[in-house]
Amino acid sequence: MFGICELANIPLRFEANDRSEIVSQVLFGECFEITETIKNWMRIKLHDDQYEGWIDNKQGRIITEEAYLKVTNVPIVLNTDLVEYISTKDNMLIPIPLGASLSFLAFPEINIFGYFFEGIRSIGLQPKSNLIATAFQYLNAPYLWGGKTPFGIDCSGFTQMVYKLNGYPLLRDAAQQATLGEALSFIEESEPGDLAFFDNEEGKIIHVGIIMNDNYIIHASGKVRIDRLDHLGIFNAETNRHTHKLRVIKRII
């Protein structure tokens, strides 16, 4: 079975209950495969990044395999404003966040409620130079484990959404993203839009951010913020200390 999200964003949980950890979010318009059902819960696999978890079955709509294949085989169309509204034929408004998918609106057999969208949208690949401007749209967004929106986002959700809005797919978790791209030897070789990854004492990659000009980095830590980056890691001028230990810099595009 297959499904689609028609709410602003819904929690994707580790286990099939409302108290379980939120591992990610499903944004409006995102499609998924249903791999298991238990009572009021569906285990799903998101199409875009293959991430898996559980959602309340009241928060997703079942669609046919034919519809799923149709909407996932066209270029992704995304909302590029901080928050926008989807309208219905009955003049109801549904708020949607930055990065919500609008691709299915073009298919009447899927868009059965007559949703329409009049806001700004993006489609296809954007220049790498656009990544930092996109990242600034999330500036000061509060940190939220598993979050993917300007109203709550984690470090890898931030990098994933910034890249997605510019047409470049990334995996969901920082450690997964670190497997992509080309490793650079020095910070001096990096350019705006490259990703910097950071590890813990056990050598596990636990954090990621987007490199800016002049040895600055934008990343989600407490909130989406800008800090200094050096060969040791991220330096927070407010606390006068390094907060994250640099592991590797990757050029994805």
What does this entry look like structurally?
The two termini are 34 Å apart. With 253 residues, the chain is mainly β. It contains four helices and 20 strands. It is globular and about 55 Å long. A hairpin with an 8-residue loop joins strand 2 (9-13) and strand 3. The protein folds into two domains: 2-123, SH3 Domains (SH3 type barrels, Roll); 128-251, Alpha-Beta Complex (endopeptidase fold (from Nostoc punctiforme)), CATH 3.90.1720. The chain has a six-stranded antiparallel β-barrel with strand order 15-16-17-18-19-20.
List keywords for this structure.
globular, 2 domains, mainly beta, 253 residues
Detail the topology: elements first, then pairings.
Layout: E1 2-4, E2 9-13, E3 22-27, E4 31-38, E5 41-46, E6 52-56, E7 61-63, H1 65-71, E8 77-79, E9 83-87, E10 93-97, E11 121-123, H2 131-136, E12 148-149, E13 152-153, H3 155-165, H4 174-177, E14 182-184, E15 195-199, E16 205-211, E17 216-221, E18 223-229, E19 233-236, E20 241-251
Antiparallel strand pairs: 1-4, 1-7, 2-3, 4-5, 5-6, 8-11, 9-10, 12-13, 14-20, 15-16, 15-20, 16-17, 17-18, 18-19, 19-20
